[in-house]
Amino acid sequence: MTHDIENYDEIFSGTKQVAANLKIDSERLQPWIDAHVEGAGRIKRIEQFKGGQSNPTYKITTDTKSLVLRRKPPGKLLPSAHAVDREYKVISALYETDVPVPKTYGLCEDESVAGTAFFVMDFLDGDIYWNPMLPSLKKEDRIKIYSSKNKTLAALHSVDYKKVGLGDYGKPGNYVSRQIARWSRQYKASETDNIDAMNNLIEWLPENIPNDDETSIVHGDFRLDNMIYKNNDVIGVLDWELSTLGHPVADFSYHCLTWRTEPMYSDYPKLKELGIPNEMEYRDMYSEATGKDLSSNWEFYMAFNIFKVAAICQGILGRVRDGTAASKHAEDRGMKVYPLSEGAWSIVEKNFK
Q1: In this structure, are residues 233 and 144 in contact, taking their beta carbons and an 8 Å threshold?
Q2: Helices marked H in the chain — which ranges?
Q3: What fold is seen in the domain 2-122?
Q4: Residue 208's Cα: distance from chain center in Å?
Q5: Distance between CA 226 and CA 246 in Å, rounded?
């Protein structure tokens, strides 16, 4: 069940008939389900979730269970893209921790079963919200939801990644430095204009990385609509495609960009009235849960993350130029490289110059 933002219900919520090119043969899948999901019984229905996942995702209804199957899309793929094996690995490892994730039942890399590699996990029945202002809820519900998602990310960053078998899930250390180098390269490769603010950031950021390096599991795209709620508590975190070992503060501050990029979030009296914490209150909730003092390097991380989003937007503009992303929506999104890079550089000028 999905709430909020006009038409999102119809666009993203629930399931639909499986697209012709993504059909799965239930007769081929049945023996795998029998072998891996004890007592599931016969497959009665296979539907496709509507949401815009890059990995096609299905709801499998059997005699006794509701399951979710996530698979690689068919066709030629980049080697590191659509890594369902990584998603399976991290979700399985986190199941025994305080991070709410579904139970997994197995990874299948035999492409004859469903056409591409896939994994199966429990279906979690709850609410997904798209609009961070949560207009359909009462004030006390909003307070609880913001608190629960904050605690959930704090719990993820507190997991001992070696202990849960994720010591090889990414490179430990120097995450921010590697990210700046990566996004600077991506930006240069798709550059369509000479943007002073981006040039300044590319020069300034690597020289000013805080001396606070640490490593944890990071989600990479932790946001409201990647969580399932029940009674205002997070019961499942989804979409682990961008997860790796990284810097927890970089991950948390990326999650907090809404306060910098959405104009309505700067109206603190309005937020108070709605029961939504302001940026500093939300940051302090995380500090309290993790014991990390974020105050001294916070503005660096904000500038870094806005730079990263600006570089992603430039990548979209590059694809528009090359004719591989021709929609008006893509161009509008790509043009955000200008205000974002200027915003990031103004953070540097205001706090570090």
Answers
A1: yes
A2: 8-12, 26-36, 84-94, 111-114, 139-157, 175-189, 196-204, 248-255, 258-261, 268-274, 279-290, 298-322, 328-334, 337-352
A3: Phosphorylase Kinase; domain 1 (3.30.200)
A4: 26
A5: 19
Question: What is the bridge-based pairing of β-strands 43-49 and 118-122?
Answer: unpaired
**145 burial level (CB within 10 Å; 0-12, 13-18, 19+):** buried
Q: Which CATH number fits domain 132-352: 3.20.20.70, 3.90.1200.10, 3.40.50.2300, 3.30.70.790?
A: 3.90.1200.10
The two structure tokens encoding residue 174: 């120097």
205 three-class SS = helix
Fold match flag (2-122 vs 132-352)? no
Residues 187-217: tens digit of each pLDDT? 999 999 999 999 999 999 999 999 999 999 9
> Where in the chain are the domains?
2-122, 132-352
- Per DSSP, helices labelled H in 158-235 are 175-189, 196-204
DSSP conformational letter for 218:
E
Two structure tokens written together for 176 = 């921010």
For residue range 116-169, what is the model confidence (pLDDT) as tens digits?
999 999 999 999 898 899 999 999 999 999 999 999 999 999 999 999 999 999
Cβ distance 348 to 201 under 8 Å?
Answer: yes
Task: Round to whole Å and give the CA distance between 272 and 263.
Answer: 15
Contact assessment for residue 86 and residue 77, using Cβ atoms and an 8 Å cutoff: no
Which pLDDT score, from 0 to 100, does residue 46 have? 95
- The per-residue pLDDT for range 254-298, each reduced to its tens digit, is 999 999 998 899 999 999 999 999 999 999 999 999 999 999 999
Q: How confident is the model at residue 11 (pLDDT cuts 50, 70, 90)?
A: very low
Give the chain's count of helices (H) and strands (E).
14, 12
Q: Which residue has the tokens 């302001």?
A: 278
Q: Is 104 exposed, middle or buried (0-12, 13-18, 19+ CB in 10 A)?
A: buried
Q: Are 72 and 55 in contact (CB under 8 A)?
A: yes
Single pTM value for the model: 0.90
- Sign of the torsion formed by the C-alpha atoms of 269, 272, 274 and 276: positive
